[in-house]
Fold:
Amino acid sequence: MSRVQQITVLGATGSIGLSTLDVIARHPDRYQVFALTGFSRVAELLALCVRHVPRFAVVPEAAAASRLQEGLLAAGLSTQVLVGEQGLCEVASAPEVDAVMAAIVGAAGLRPTLAAVEAGKKILLANKEALVMSGALFMQAVGKSGSVLLPIDSEHNAIFQCMPADFSRGLSQVGVRRILLTASGGPFRQTPLAELEHVSPEQACAHPNWSMGRKISVDSASMMNKGLELIEACWLFDAKPSQVEVVVHPQSVIHSLVDYVDGSVLAQLGNPDMRTPIANALAWPERIDSGVAPLDLFAIARLDFQAPDEQRFPCLRLARQAAEAGDSAPAMLNAANEVAVSAFLERRIRYPEIASIIDEVLSREPVFAVNELGAVFAADAKARSLAEQWLQRNGR
Ligand code: NAD
Ligand code: MG
Structure:
């Protein structure tokens, strides 16, 4: 490799952001931090700036910017502070940047991630919601700019590793029959159905295998995360929803599999630690140390598999319906889910009502075409307003 790569980390203060910085710090000969962005945790962002000395840092508004600026000056750093979505787009597309880790959670990550795509950057995509919302437009933009798109989601990174290099020719052209997307089943895999009425945000966020941000933790409990990942896989690998099968695998050791027409099934295995897919994407097509311990198969001893239970996980069914409907449906599914998950985390609704809200939003608005970004944001706004109407009508 010729020179040190300049990396922007969008969502640096989050779970993926911190894991990314851990891997980067192991390879100062390869990577330098160009920009770090945060949202509410300014003190944490300042500590990361002191540790990684970026050229730029981005916060959401002016008050946060002056607090960060003060801390940077006190620490003797010349990091420049930018503000808001425009700041995020600037550090995602700056000419000096080689790769962008897209790790903002939710729809808020769409514009900055697209700015990086349009600027032809190497994209390390954790922010699955951006792709779910705008799939067709996102992939068109990737094609147009020649951006290299590498999946960070552990399942999609596993699939990517199990695919032949020329998979973009089409799955049938390269002999792939199916993608098998593994799911842990989350904390409520075996909870009696009647108890789901009373589960708390803390219980939903206590994932058995992975440590993650709160939104994706709730999505994992409801299996909406797997639904979003089903849509993500369709866009990344040009698959039909019917070609992606969800397999519940409670140990989270097999991160996904690819089934070929000759009967070969390739899988990627590893400890459940996001530093593996992050290191894989950062160094691709090379390999670097991630700090993850070697897999101990004797300690794991057994691997189990089950079909997903759609009565227990209605969000998975709703996501598959949205995947099949296409157009505005995935953006509406995503936005309704974001509103419902926030309401659940704020204890305004019960856990099963997450699915009720999404179901109602999807059934109230007919699917419409999304040929430009304005239509994606219109679908997002419409779903948010219908979800808010549900909350108001039910006195939440
Ligand atoms: P997190 O909540 O820990 O971090 C989210 C980051 O986004 C933080 O840096 C936060 O400051 C920033 N952010 C939040 N709202 C913002 C806004 N409105 N504008 C700008 N920045 C904002 O989440 P996470 O677990 O790190 O997940 C990040 C993304 O990666 C999500 O899309 C998630 O689905 C995906 N992902 C995460 C994991 C995981 O193991 N954590 C695995 C696969 C995919
Ligand atoms: Mg995943």
About this structure: The longest strand covers residues 176-183. The chain has three domains: 5-151, 155-271+280-313, 326-396.
